[in-house]
Design a protein that fits this description.
By secondary structure, this protein is an alpha/beta fold. It is built from 14 helices and 15 strands. The protein folds into 2 domains: 139 residues, Aspartate Aminotransferase, domain 1, CATH 3.90.1150; 259 residues, Aspartate Aminotransferase, domain 2 (3-Layer(aba) Sandwich). The radius of gyration is 22 Å and the shape is globular.
């Protein structure tokens, strides 16, 4: 580490608390990013790194998009802020809701805006509780989500998140949040005679029956699990989930915070399986990270209950419907459409996945190479035959990550065993080739040639 970067980190350590704060890790391998261009990040020493996770899955359009910055500047000069509380609105929020209604699932027609994904999760939980209460079923409060699901780290969103390392320091979690197994084709074991997808979906029916359908308000799931290790489900999974939710009168809430706006090769993730949710959550790519923004789309059925409820929907954020965020989101929707992000993700994702499999699938410690659209993952194992993991103390994923950084690639892990990749949609094929080469070299450097 250079003296320049080190000086920044010393100042950082004196004053900043970071997300997922770990001072030892930050001091040992911290980066101070000073510039972005396309799919590259530059550190304080001017060294380029491929941004192989699009920031945190959000910088879909790449860094340095002047048109997004110009829209933000114009909007700040025109109307930097106004409240969107009942009785107030702004033209950009109205137009954005109209544009979203035109491109999302047909049943999604009403929208509430937030500052990001976790706020959207909390909004969905509270909306589900309000909805059932207004329909005379106030006991339908429980939320079911899944192992390896990531939904954020506010207290309610953390309780829905199925990554257990997020829980212990903040227990007790919010009561009424339950988890079922992930529909992971690599690890989920179905009973004889039942497909993996149907068996994994039936886990939802079993827990609903165990808890009592009269107590369960919503099921929350990412169409493709993202931060939990890029887990695309079997094709029969989501149609069966929709059937179960309909049968037991449970709201199906799709967390499209990562999968929305083209990332999986479709505009929204559940389109792959012809399934529509009752609510959908979005954030990240809607502004490509250029402004903190997100939201919840809901069916007209739910919207009508909010309209006609006997008690006000007492839920609010200061920055809901922020005019600058809405203006950037409107421009971003143009980019998603004009540059055909869904097609880019489908084509580049297939190229990246094929290249990674060719480079690494034969390695004895790469158990699985998987993906959907432009989101891929490598799962590292100690024994390929048994799928046994390395002891956590060996931190094999961190060793691979360290080698990747030496070679100019930066991303994130799930735990210590799954390396995630989701570069910006605009990443050129030459840089996809670099990602493939770097990952192959990094795995071999950290775990041997095999």
């Amino acid at each position: 580490m250079s003296a320049f970067n080190s000086a920044f980190l010393q100042r950082d350590a004196a004053h900043l608390i970071h997300p997922l704060h770990n001072r030892r890790m930050h001091e040992a391998a911290g980066h101070v990013w000073v510039r972005g261009e396309g799919a590259l990040l530059f550190d304080a020493d001017g060294r380029p790194f491929i941004d192989a996770l699009s920031g945190l899955w959000n910088v879909a359009a790449g860094h340095g998009r002047k048109e997004l910055a110009e829209v933000a500047a114009r909007q700040m000069e025109t109307l930097a802020y106004c409240s969107n509380y009942a009785g107030s609105s702004n033209p950009w929020a109205i137009e954005l809701a109209e544009k979203l209604e035109a491109i999302t699932y047909p049943r999604i027609q009403r929208f509430f805006f937030t500052s990001g994904g976790a706020e959207s999760v909390d909004t969905a939980v509270k909306t589900a509780r309000y909805y059932w209460r207004m329909l005379g079923q106030p006991e339908k409060t429980k939320v079911i989500s899944r192992q390896w699901g990531y939904h954020g780290v506010t207290l309610a969103a953390m309780s829905a998140t199925g990554l257990q390392n997020y829980w212990p320091m903040f227990e007790p979690r919010v009561p009424g949040f339950l988890h079922i197994p992930s529909p992971d084709p690599y690890r989920y074991v179905a009973p004889p005679g039942v497909s993996q997808g149907i068996a994994a979906a039936n886990e939802l029916e079993q827990i609903i029956l165990r808890e009592g359908p009269e107590t369960v308000g919503m099921f929350l799931g990412e169409p493709v699990q993202g931060a939990g290790g890029v887990i695309p489900p079997p094709d029969d999974y989501w149609p069966r989930i929709r059937q179960i939710c309909d049968q037991y009168k449970v709201l199906l809430v799709a967390d499209e915070v990562i999968t929305g706006f083209g990332r999986t090769g479709k505009q929204f993730g559940l389109e792959h399986w012809g399934v529509e949710p009752d609510m959908m959550l979005f954030a990240k790519a809607i502004t490509s990270g250029y402004f903190p923004f997100g939201g919840v789309g809901m069916s007209e059925t739910i919207g009508a209950v909010l309209d006609e409820g006997k008690q006000p929907w007492m839920h609010a954020f200061t920055y809901s419907g922020h005019p600058v965020g809405c203006a950037i989101a409107l421009k971003m929707l143009e980019i998603v459409r004009d540059e055909n992000f869904a097609q880019l993700a489908a084509e580049k994702g297939a190229y990246l996945l094929a290249g990674l499999r060719q480079a690494l699938a034969g390695h004895p410690h790469v158990g699985d190479v998987r993906g959907k659209g432009l989101m891929c993952a490598l799962e590292l194992v100690q024994d390929k035959a048994t799928k046994a993991l390395f002891p956590a103390s060996e931190a094999v994923g961190y060793k691979v990550h360290a080698e990747a950084q030496k070679r100019g690639l930066f991303s994130r892990l799930r735990g210590v065993e799954v390396f995630c990749l989701a570069p910006p949609m605009i990443t050129p094929y030459s840089q996809l080739d670099q990602i493939i080469e770097v990952m192959g070299d990094s795995v071999r450097a950290a775990l041997g040639s095999g």
